[in-house]
Design a protein that fits this description.
Number of strands: 19
Strand order of the largest sheet: 13-12-9-6-5-17-18-19
Shape: globular
Strand content: 15-25%
Largest sheet: 8 strands, antiparallel
Distance between the termini: 38 Å
Helix content: 25-40%
């Protein structure tokens, strides 16, 4: 379990992440939203205190309980489903930062909810994410998030609560006296790898493993980003490709819990950029409905690789934040269906108008669903010069 000392260190790392993730420095009086599940209240209290001590204005918001969320989807009529809370737009236009503390007491409570209802709400609230995306591109907003251990998470991961908590302590380096110093070292090490990746003029990346044979096209004006403070922990390096060049097959050997649903064994086949065939060993109906959410939900928004030398995560955690950063024996590759990230634009992200994003092949969607493969793999870059360079093999970047 996390004791008082761990909570203080966790809050320090989160605030480091918050400051690192924003282009502009925070100043006294800035507004930071603290969004938390009720089980994470002990950590929320410490974060709140540290933000006040910095001279910032924390605004706290608790999430819906599992019962509230289930009732919302099962009882709401269409108007209630797309209802936008008065004041949300003004708040999102004013906040300078956001810290989300995730501690779910249930991760399967929406399994009997029609997937299209979940999708409809996501589409109706997308405008709030768009506001934050624009503010982040302008350097006025930064965000980070983390996971707090719960019995529910541990049970689905097949671990005791103590074992689950220990994975969090190890991954976030909370057993160290100065975890922020460790994170700064990881941040600097990642800078060198990103510089190497971004020095290449790449036409496409070819990802091969036992069940993956996928071509991803980075497109023009792209750069690799990651280990930027946005997620604690985060060890992935990623880019948002030109979705139009995606070809081939991807298999998620890691199961995923999403919107209260369990999905296992996802297989995707892409042709001319879009998913033309999708299946799952479990949760296939939910998968199909999710990728039909809007026009961009069946297209690629992210391509990511995690170096096992960075990540101490060594087991399935039943949560995407950890599973997409799995280190293990072979690292991991994950792709995300749906929304792309503007910060992977190699230029001033504030210049990325909707029309320019469309021209460059940045995908737009209310969905962003990370799907993870942990098989032993090789990733080869096909350069503009015709040369082929292995950039990732045996769970590590090759630089």
């Amino acid at each position: 379990m996390l004791n008082g000392m761990h909570l203080q260190r966790y809050a320090q790392v989160l605030i480091w992440g918050l400051k690192t993730a924003r282009a502009e420095k925070y100043k006294k009086g800035d507004i930071v939203l603290v969004h938390y599940d009720l089980a994470a209240l002990p950590l929320a209290e410490v974060v709140y205190s540290q933000l006040l001590d910095m001279g910032l204005n924390p605004v706290q918001r608790a999430t819906l309980t599992p019962k509230m969320e289930h009732d919302f989807y099962t009882i709401s009529n269409n108007k209630q489903l797309i209802f936008n809370t008065p004041g949300d737009e003004g708040l999102f236009k004013a906040i300078n930062g956001s810290i989300s503390l995730r501690a779910p007491d249930s991760i399967t409570h929406l399994s009997d909810v029609r997937p299209e209802k979940i999708g409809k709400k996501a589409v109706a609230h997308k405008y709030l994410n768009d506001i934050l995306d624009r503010r982040e591109a302008e350097g006025k907003f930064g965000w980070t998030l983390c996971l707090y251990p719960t019995t529910e998470l541990a049970r689905h991961a097949g671990l005791t609560l103590e074992e689950y908590s220990d994975q969090i302590l190890q991954a976030c380096s909370l057993k160290k006296t100065d975890p922020v110093a460790w994170w700064k070292t990881i941040y600097n090490d990642a800078q060198a790898i990103k510089k190497w990746l971004n020095s290449m003029k790449v036409m496409s990346y070819h990802i091969e493993s036992e069940h993956v044979d996928l071509k991803v096209t980075p497109g023009h004006n792209r750069k690799w980003v990651g280990i930027s403070g946005h997620n604690i922990p985060s060890f992935e390096l990623f880019l948002s490709p030109d979705w139009r060049g995606t070809e081939g097959s991807f298999y998620a050997d890691q199961p995923t819990y999403r919107s209260g649903n369990y999905v296992k064994g996802v297989r995707l086949h892409f042709k001319t950029g879009s998913v033309v065939k999708a299946s799952a060993e479990q949760g296939e109906e939910f998968l199909i409905k999710q990728i039909a959410m809007d026009n961009g939900a069946n297209k690629l928004g992210e391509f990511s690789l995690t170096d096992k030398r960075f990540s101490k995560i060594s087991t399935f955690m039943a949560n995407t934040l950890y599973d997409e950063n799995y280190g293990g024996k072979s690292g991991n590759c994950h792709v995300a269906l749906g929304a792309s990230y503007s910060d992977t634009y190699d230029g001033d992200a504030a210049e990325l108008t909707p029309d320019k994003k469309k021209d460059l092949g940045f995908n737009d969607s209310a969905l962003h669903w990370d799907l993870i493969n942990t098989e032993k793999k090789r990733v080869v870059a096909q350069l503009v010069s015709g040369k082929r360079v292995t950039i990732y093999e045996a769970g590590m970047f090759a630089c």
